[in-house]
Automatic annotation (TrEMBL):
Keyword list, A-Z: Cell membrane, Membrane, Sugar transport, Transmembrane, Transmembrane helix, Transport
Bilayer-crossing regions: 21-45, 90-110, 122-143, 170-192, 228-249, 276-296
SUPFAM superfamilies found in the cross-reference section: MetI-like
Domain of life: Bacteria
Membrane topology term: Multi-pass membrane protein
Domain ABC transmembrane type-1 positions: 84-297
Family membership: Belongs to the binding-protein-dependent transport system permease family.
Subcellular location per the Swiss-Prot or TrEMBL entry: Cell membrane
Name listed for the protein in its UniProt record: Multiple sugar transport system permease protein
């Protein structure tokens, strides 16, 4: 049998609908091409060349930039792996706190009356709207060893000044503290929205069965918000891997090189040493590491969920 042809008016409406849908997608597509796809392709191209801004010729060298990074005798090797180590430290220190404190704050705000909840939610979210440079200036003003507000109060109380930004472990504590204050509001809002989606009937059923508040949290709240929890963990990990502004502006990578994260080394290599080829290779390797970690987190979460089911 021959397929029935659509009336001309209906076919025209379908074409118009598809074109309208395409127009809605077009802005995102253009932004994706301009700010993600094209830079990614160009970054791969640069990483395969001896791309020095001071030279008029950028010869193709294949994977030599990558080989240089993995050569133990190369300065690029220590720059990459020491920076990566410091970045991983920051991720390990910050991500659990951002997730746990964000969830705890969301649970706390959900337990107070509506008007107060809106007020405190706004207060905690405001720092997220501030730029990293302003956040760093605020914490420099608070934590400076000689003239910082916190040390002034400590000395007034008879304590010695603490080198918050110039000695370890205080430098890491300062960076993590500033990051939590700055970004905690985002995770809190995400968790509040997730908690509001938990069916109230589940809590009522748990109360009838005699479940305690802790049992409700473990057996009802956490399983229900698991997808949101995974989203927060992955986004917090990616954001922490991309840390740059806080150590660059607050500690300058010090004391020594102990807080010089990988992005600081890449930026220095690209724009001060002008070695864009190796810097692009490092940036691509860093992106690959983030993708692998995100996939592992996703697989672990799905495996645990499958095991529980």
């Amino acid at each position: 049998m021959k397929e029935a042809k659509l009336p001309a008016s209906k076919a025209k409406k379908e074409r118009l609908s598809k074109f309208t849908s395409f127009l809605f997608v077009l802005p995102y597509l253009l932004l994706f091409l301009a700010f993600l796809f094209i830079p990614l392709v160009y970054g791969i191209y640069i990483s395969l060349h001896d791309y020095n801004l001071l030279s008029s010729v950028q010869p193709f060298i294949g994977f030599e930039n990558y080989a240089t990074i993995f050569n133990p005798d190369s300065a690029m090797n220590s720059l990459f792996f020491e920076g990566l180590g410091n970045t991983v430290k920051f991720v390990i220190f910050s991500v659990p706190l951002l997730v746990v404190i964000g969830l705890g704050l969301a649970l706390l705000l959900n337990s107070i009356p509506g008007k107060l909840r809106t007020f405190f939610r706004t207060i905690y979210f405001i720092p997220y709207a501030i730029s990293v440079s302003v956040v760093s200036i605020i914490f420099l003003w608070i934590l400076d060893t000689n003239s910082g507000l916190l040390n002034m109060y400590l000395m007034d109380l008879g304590f010695d000044a603490i080198p918050w930004l110039t000695k370890q472990p205080f430098a890491w504590i300062s960076l993590i503290g500033a990051t939590i204050w700055w970004t905690l509001g985002f995770n809190m809002i995400i968790f509040i929205n997730a908690l509001n989606e938990v069916p109230e009937e589940l809590y009522e059923a748990g109360a009838i069965d005699g479940a305690s508040a802790w049992q409700k949290f473990i057996h009802i709240t956490l399983p229900t918000i698991r997808p949101i929890m995974l989203f927060v963990i992955i986004t917090s990990t990616i954001a922490s891997f991309n840390v740059f502004g806080q150590p660059y502006l607050m500690t300058r990578g010090g004391p020594g090189d102990s807080t010089e994260v990988l992005l600081m080394g890449i930026v220095n290599l690209a724009f001060e040493e002008r070695e864009l080829g190796v810097a692009s290779a490092m940036a691509l390797l860093m992106s690959l590491i983030m993708i692998v970690i995100s996939v592992i987190q996703f697989k672990i979460a799905n495996y645990k969920q499958g095991g529980e089911n």
